[in-house]
């Protein structure tokens, strides 16, 4: 079995994000970058599947600039077998990323794609579904449990009403949720070993992908600051204010 885990390079979840002065987007200068947390969960699950005794090769891939190699080093520290950097300096939209991954899946004859349900920078939650559609693969989203067996995968999904258990045939695309696992602590020896490993690099142009943007950002701005609340120490005053607000809503 070949398992592909796409990993996106995003601003670290602890970093303070600032809007660029011209309002065109987010200013990432001097911001710590790291692997998308949902993708780390997918990495952990792929490695666990291999460690459980399944004859599997785990391949990590990221799409981005040369700087994105750092998230592949993280993937090596998790224990993946191979890593691929699809190099581009363009800011790709979910559809372009899905097309890029489709080309790689077909090139590598991937059986299972495990990926985070969304990236924490744009929260699009689109790439996995688009990839499955482009490949015409079975798909399962928001997975909190994944159990591969004899050409099928049993998946427990988190849905609005609780949990849903389904079984899908390979090849398949699965997007993972937070409760699937707790990613392992990366030890210093594994981090040092990962630094010595090299990733295969492929120019996105070699895949023949149409990565032209279909969306235009009109403006980016910070949310309005919440106004301070008012403390009412008198019950009658609070009730009067409450009724006045209700009247405005009506």
Automatic annotation (TrEMBL):
UniProt entry tagged with the keyword Transport: yes
Keywords: Electron transport, Transport
Pfam families from the UniProt entry: ETF
SUPFAM superfamilies assigned to the protein according to its UniProt record, in alphabetical order: Adenine nucleotide alpha hydrolases-like
Family named by the database record: Belongs to the ETF beta-subunit/FixA family.
Organism: Leeia speluncae
Sequence intervals crossing the membrane: none
InterPro entries per the UniProt record, alphabetical: ET-Flavoprotein_bsu_CS, ETF_a/b_N, ETF_b, ETF_beta_N, Rossmann-like_a/b/a_fold
Name of the protein described by the UniProt record: Electron transfer flavoprotein subunit beta
Residues annotated as signal peptide: none
Record keyword Transport present: yes
Residues annotated as domain Electron transfer flavoprotein alpha/beta-subunit N-terminal: 23-211
């Amino acid at each position: 079995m070949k398992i592909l885990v796409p990993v996106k390079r995003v601003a670290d979840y602890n970093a303070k994000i600032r809007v660029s002065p011209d309002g065109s987007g987010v200013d990432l200068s001097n911001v710590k970058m790291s692997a998308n947390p949902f993708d780390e969960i997918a990495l952990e699950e792929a490695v666990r599947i291999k460690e459980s005794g399944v004859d599997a090769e785990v391949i990590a891939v990221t799409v981005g600039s040369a700087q994105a190699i750092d998230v592949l080093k993280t993937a090596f520290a998790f224990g993946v077998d191979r890593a691929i950097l699809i190099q581009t300096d363009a800011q790709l939209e979910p559809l372009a990323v899905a097309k890029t991954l489709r080309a790689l899946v077909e090139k590598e004859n991937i059986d299972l794609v495990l990926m985070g349900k969304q990236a924490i920078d744009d929260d699009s939650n689109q790439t996995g579904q688009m990839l499955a559609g482009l490949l015409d693969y079975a798909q399962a989203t928001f997975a909190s449990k994944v159990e591969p067996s004899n050409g099928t995968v049993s998946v427990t999904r988190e849905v609005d009403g609780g949990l849903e258990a389904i079984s899908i045939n390979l090849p398949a695309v699965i997007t993972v949720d937070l409760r699937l696992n707790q990613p392992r602590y990366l030890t210093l020896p594994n981090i040092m070993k990962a630094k010595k490993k090299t990733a295969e690099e492929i120019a996105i142009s070699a895949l023949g992908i149409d990565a032209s943007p279909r969306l235009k950002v009109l403006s980016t701005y910070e949310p309005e600051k919440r106004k301070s609340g008012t403390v009412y120490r008198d019950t009658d005053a609070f009730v009067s204010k409450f009724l006045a607000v209700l009247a405005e809503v009506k």
